[in-house]
Amino acid sequence: MEVRTGDEGGTPMASGTASNRHNGHGGPRDTADRASDAAEEAVNSRGFELAARAGYVAAGILHLLIGVIAFGLARGGSGSADQSGAIGRLAGSPGGTLLLWFCFIGCLALALFQLATTVFGTKTLRDREKLKARLKSGGQAAVYAAIGVTFGRYALGGSSNSSSSTRSLSATLMSNPAGSALLLAVGTGILMVGGYFVYSGATRRFRRNLSGLPAGRPGTAVVVLGTVGYIAKGFALGVLGVLVVVATVTNNPEQSTGLDGALKTLRDQPFGAWLLGAVAVGLMAYGVFMIIRSRYQRM
To answer: Which of 66, 82, 144, 237 is most buried, by the most CB atoms less than 10 A from its CB?
Structure first.
């Protein structure tokens, strides 16, 4: 794993800074440079890389459990097919507390790695590509940090309800025009992210993030898992985005119930049980892919 600063070939330093580094009489800028170097060295350490890779395993476990719950819903069962429902089920399983702490540490380490990428950037990218990469890394840092906090809450014996929290937040935002506009933007953004997931799966674009895949059938199986998983997650996010937009337009926060509500709405449509079953299998495939991704992800 390597996070670098500057452009290709290095960035010239002011002579005073360079001198300060050699003679040890640096000012605030020299102190900042040393802190930056120390942070970079920590991020590039093998131990930090392994901890960050564990974040992908945690995300895989989360999606796998959501897929299992969604499959049960498709067969007429009950449960909450979202983040809180999946983590709650993990907490109640044998060895669940240990797994919760593992996922908590992994998610926070991966969030810190993505944050480091946002701050330091990547040396080999052009300015425009660098900006896109930093924005993407910043968004991923926020997502993994939020997931990690939820894992930590359950590890400490607490709980949460994603659907209830989403309804409450939606009702608050819908109470004023600015909040409604924000919700419309969020719903549209979720739709766009869902479309990107479908596109990445259909074109196998996600392979750009992997290296060292085994040859033959094992490598092909990983790609198939990623293709199915990305498309299924994109479809689920698309349904969620539509519900957020519809709920905002109709001023009905009860329709904005997060991923669990989106999947249950899908189940209630004609042939919905079959559609939900297919999405559930896809989410499980995505979960397995994420666990495997922890080994082959470019860091």
So the answer is: 66
* 192 within some domain: yes
Long-range Cβ contacts of 75-83 (<8 Å, 24+ apart): 75/273, 75/277, 76/273, 80/161, 80/162, 80/163, 80/260, 81/259, 81/260, 81/263, 81/264, 81/280, 82/162, 82/163, 82/258, 82/259, 82/260, 83/147, 83/150, 83/162, 83/259
Residue 210, SS3 per DSSP: strand
- Whether 209 and 273 share a structural domain: yes
Tokens 């960035």, residue located: 11
163: left (phi over 0), alpha (psi -120 to 50) or beta: alpha
Note whether 176 and 280 are same-domain residues: yes
Q: Which amino acid is at 136?
A: K
Task: Tokens for 74, please give them.
Answer: 């498709």
pTM of structure? 0.82
| Residues recorded for the chain | 299
Residue with tokens 């506009």: 181
- Alpha-carbon gap, residue 272 to 270, rounded angstroms: 5
CA distance 243 to 241: 5
The label of the residue with tokens 């337009």 reads 249
Give the model confidence (pLDDT) of 48-66 as tens digits.
889 999 999 999 999 999 9
Q: Name the residue with tokens 């942070």.
A: 39
Tokens, residue 42: 């920590």
Which DSSP symbol is given to 60?
Answer: H
**Total number of domains constituting the chain:** 2
Residue entry with tokens 């092909």: 220
Range 267-276 contact pairs with CB under 8 angstroms and sequence separation of 24 or more: 267/73, 267/74, 273/74, 273/75, 273/76, 274/74, 276/70, 276/73, 276/74
